[in-house]
Design goal:
5-stranded antiparallel sheet; 9 helices; 21% helix; elongated
Length: 405
């Protein structure tokens, strides 16, 4: 942990004496503040020694003032491999209901033990049954990995009508705030492999006019064999009409992706809206992807790691000009959902993934430590000494601004 303090250096410039060939060293003073906010004035006993070892009660009137920034590093005791000891930095200091901090690595600890080190958000699977009573509504979040989709994964995420997707998704989406999720207010969908789908079989290389190989397989993986699937007719959502997958693929990769972006946006928005419909009032939902799936400080500069989300469009499948589309609910009844804008517009918060793939090392230090394994570089103290200081709060603010969080 890094605590910063500002030290004011106060200079008294001695007058030049005509017999001196050079300027005399100034006497310097240092102003610090103790933990109880008492101001301490220290004087440098020997000018230029940087040892402020004389405490005085007042400052001379003729001083010139300046500021010097500094930082104080708290001692850190490296833990054994696979362990983390956050209590060494203190307990009971960091908890704030306005900042959500979740760390599953401490899942073996009780809720109260984790709260003591600043953790105040808990995934549903990291809390033992005997610790559930230490939670209140709003402190638990559900991170729904892609497996929750079941048969709706991968190609089946796209090759259906919106009503068919709605019918299959409704029983799969958890009802936050009720039953086993009585304390759960936040839901994040972690959907990864189903976010993309290319035409063609992977083993056969790209289709004519395509840049990338397909996601289907001659072995009949979860997507099926392209030669069996390509004859299926789908209702277009990016434009009007029906078409076979083979005909859509013949439009080229860009034409295929244009339709896929629309279908993906519609379905992700539906998942978010279904969770909001089924959950307790106040349920907050998000899709587990952000506009910069990497480190925003470089992604937006280099144009890498960007997630192209597409826009919802219900106008071509029976929706009105505002995007309102009515669905039949499983078990009876109807519900109207507005599908418009980006699927990000249907979130209550942004997950804002932030991948710091590499610490901030100078290139030569990184090479010496990780590539050449030079003698004397393979210890934690040496490693820590070469990591450049970063402003973690500044970086967090940066990702929030870049991803719209």
């Amino acid at each position: 942990m890094i605590n910063t303090q500002t030290t004011r250096l106060i200079y008294i410039l001695w007058a030049l004496l005509s017999v001196w060939p050079a300027i005399a060293q100034p006497t310097r003073y240092k102003l610090t503040q103790s933990q109880n906010s008492t101001q301490i004035i220290s004087k440098e006993s020997t000018p230029g020694s940087n040892k402020f070892d004389q405490v005085v009660s007042t400052l001379p009137a003729e001083i010139a003032q300046g500021r010097k920034g500094g930082r104080l590093l708290m001692p850190y005791a490296p833990e054994p491999k696979g362990q983390i000891n956050m209590t060494q930095f203190g307990t009971g200091k960091y908890y704030s209901p306005n900042f959500h901090f979740c760390m599953d690595m401490l899942g073996n600890k009780s809720v109260n033990e984790r709260k003591a080190v600043g953790i105040n958000s808990f995934t549903t699977w990291s809390v033992k049954p005997e610790h559930k009573s230490q939670l209140v509504y709003g402190e638990e979040m559900h991170y729904a990995t892609e497996n929750f989709l079941g048969s709706l994964r991968n190609a089946n995420f796209y090759i259906n009508t919106l009503q068919e997707f709605f019918d299959k998704a409704w029983p799969l989406v958890p009802a936050l705030g009720y039953g086993d999720m009585a304390n759960t207010k936040y839901l994040v969908y972690d959907i990864e492999s189903s976010l993309w789908l290319n035409a063609g079989n992977a083993e056969e290389g790209p289709l004519p006019g395509w840049r990338d190989a397909g996601y289907f397989s001659k072995q009949g993986n979860s997507n099926g064999n392209w030669h069996d699937v390509k004859k299926k007719t789908i209702q277009l959502e990016g434009s009007k009409g029906t078409i076979t997958l083979e005909q859509l693929a013949a439009r080229g990769q860009d034409g295929w992706m244009s339709e896929l972006y629309t279908r993906r946006a519609n379905r992700l928005a539906l998942l978010l809206e279904i969770a909001r419909l089924k959950g307790k009032p106040g349920t907050k939902v998000a899709e587990g992807s952000s506009m910069a799936q990497g480190e925003p400080r470089v992604d937006f500069e280099k144009g890498t790691g960007l997630f192209f989300e597409g826009n919802c469009n219900a106008a071509n499948v029976g929706g009105d000009s505002q995007g309102n589309l009515t669905f039949n609910k499983p078990g009876g009844g109807k519900v109207t959902i507005r599908l418009n804008g980006s699927f990000y517009d249907h979130e209550d918060f942004n997950q804002a993934y932030w991948y710091r793939f590499d610490p901030d090392f100078d290139p030569w230090d990184k090479e010496a430590i990780f590539d050449q394994h030079k003698a004397g570089t393979q210890t934690y103290p040496y490693l820590w000494s070469k990591i450049k200081p970063i402003h973690i709060v500044g970086l967090e603010k940066g990702i929030c601004r870049k991803t719209g969080g």
